[in-house]
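From the shared-data thread, chain only:
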Amino acid sequence: MTLHRKRRGMRAAAGLAAVALAATACGSDDGGDDSNASGNGGSSSCETVNLGFIPSWTDGLSMAYLWENVLEDKGYEVDFQEIADAAPLYAGLAGGDVDVYPSAWSEVTHADYMDEYGDDIEDLGSWYEGAVLTLAVPEYVDIDSIADLAGQADRFDGRIVGIEPGAGLTRTTKEEVMPTYGLTDYTLVESSTTAMLAELQAAVDAEEDIVVTLWRPFWANSQFPVKDLEDPEGALGESEGLHNLARTGFSDDCSEVADMMGDFELSDEQYGALENLVVNEYGEGQYPEAIEAFFEEYPDVEESLKG
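Structure, as tokens:
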């Protein structure tokens, strides 16, 4: 498939619309067909799979729609449970209200949630390696390291523009990065991913200085002219894998799905293409079409999942 290229500003705007998604998308409320579930090798208690994710975090959004496509093709019903923040999502897994969180930063970023809830959560495995947290500035800003932010608060109105209060990135920035680098003249603005990206867009349009919390993989890194700041003290933590996490007992109840998720992995190129299609090329209202386009572009991934 040939991607339809658009100007950077248009694609960034489309991405902002995507992360502003608020409506809950759900699968059918009707029970799944017993013959379909048993025919797949899943147990009779696994007719429906509930996927929980935070819609403004587009790695989870992309993976939820990918798994919807795969699982419905195999005869399962798929329900989406969109949750605003990480803490209730992990609590939902631990309490059995969510079957699977398909893009968890559980090794480093959300390690505290795993400390709290991990005994009641199954780790089905990592599907992407090398995810990292970052602080970033526009390319035109003549600062290259987090250490260089010290004493420069006036340039940035004394603000580091962050995301959701419950995000691991927010906690790490506040409790590790700012004390480590002596950023006592800054305030971390806790808002949402949508609001952070809107501020970043406005600053870039006006060529103003701004520092934001970001992460990789994330579509905004390629759609905005930004650069990661070096972290010589390692305050943002090590790189980590993105995991499929499930409620306790999911592997017993739904062994085929658990096995598929455990075997699944994407390269950096494949994941970048997936998120770009979902967020920028197609966008809100056309997520299923974006997944079809991804499988058309990467038929080997579809074959590995659907057989």
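The CA atoms of residues 204 and 266 lie 31 Å apart.
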